[in-house]
Amino acid sequence: MRENFVINPKYSHLAEKLKEVLHNFSKKGEYVTKGERNVIKMVQLEGIAFNIKKFKTPNVFQALVYQHIRKSKAKRSFEYASKLIELDIKTPFPVAYLETFSGGLKESFYVSEHINYDFDFRELIHNPRFKKRNEILKQFTKFTFKLHENGVNFLDHSPGNTLIMDNGNNNYEFYLIDLNRMRFEPMDFNTRMHNFRRLWLSKTMMKVMAEEYAKLYNKSVDGTYALMLHYGRAFQKKINSKKLRRRKAN
After folding, report:
1. Per the confidence metrics, is the pTM higher than 0.85?
2. What InterPro entries does the entry give (predicted)?
3. 86, 89, 138, 141 — which has fewest CB within 10 A?
């Protein structure tokens, strides 16, 4: 069994304690989420709260791919978070990652600082009367524009992957999570509008966001809205068709 442990220099003094927690993950910390694919726990070390994400154990083929060809999700999460921090784009601070190998990747963990956020983007979708909803949507659009201007193509730009902090005085901060699917590349207008498709925006939300993005990118509001709507509806249709096929199969 071989392992690869990388820790941010800021937390090098906690390296041994953190490794001990990771080696005994099933017995340590409190569950944050316990999904079929991934598990997240929160632990406290020397008064600091950390989130640990344990990724699903890959199958035999995937395990070999992650060892020899492609970076693991844990390593990508750590590296992408570090890159975002360099670009002054908010994400929970990347602390460490651990990979264990035996005939391929066996286990992988990503550790980040825990943040006390107020709500996530999903709440804006489910509650049309959410307080200051339009103002938050405008600021979120500026945040997404900043991603695009910095060549960050966040492939999982979906409602559950943006945490929002309310700082008062109409000031909101946005934190990206679940970072392992991301590309750093120049983004043209089509690619930018395509990047909004997973957010499941209503037409009302799209109108607010299209107007703001058009202003920032010097495009027509109508053209921005039309392209955002085109990609959004195509994605929703695709997902709904998949759900319908699954129901019929069952």
Report:
1. yes
2. Kinase-like_dom_sf
3. 86
The structure tokens listed for 210 are: 């299209």
**Pairwise CA distance, residues 210 & 202, whole Å:** 12
Please give the distance of CA 190 from its chain centroid, rounded to a whole number. Answer: 21
CATH of 2-113, one of 1.10.3470, 3.30.70, 3.30.200, 3.90.1070: 3.30.200
Yes or no: say if 106 and 100 are a contact pair by the CB < 8 Å rule: yes
CATH 1.10.510.10, the chain: domain bounds: 119-249
Q: What is the 3-state secondary structure (H, E, C) of the chain?
A: CEEEEEECHHHHHHHHHHHHHHHCHHHCCEEEEECCCCEEEEEEECCEEEEEEECCCCCHHHHHHHHHCCCCHHHHHHHHHHHHHHCCCCCCCEEEEEEEECCCEEEEEEEEECCCCCEECHHHHHCCCCCCHHHHHHHHHHHHHHHHHCCEEECCCCHHHEEEEECCCCCEEEEECCCCCEEECCCCHHHHHHCCHHHCCCHHHHHHHHHHHHHHHCCCHHHHHHHHHHHHHHHHHHHHHHHHHHHHHC
CA distance 226 to 203: 10
Give the tens place of pLDDT for each residue, 144-174. Answer: 999 999 999 999 999 999 999 999 999 999 9
The C-alpha torsion from 73 through 125 and 51 to 179, rounded to 10°, is: 20
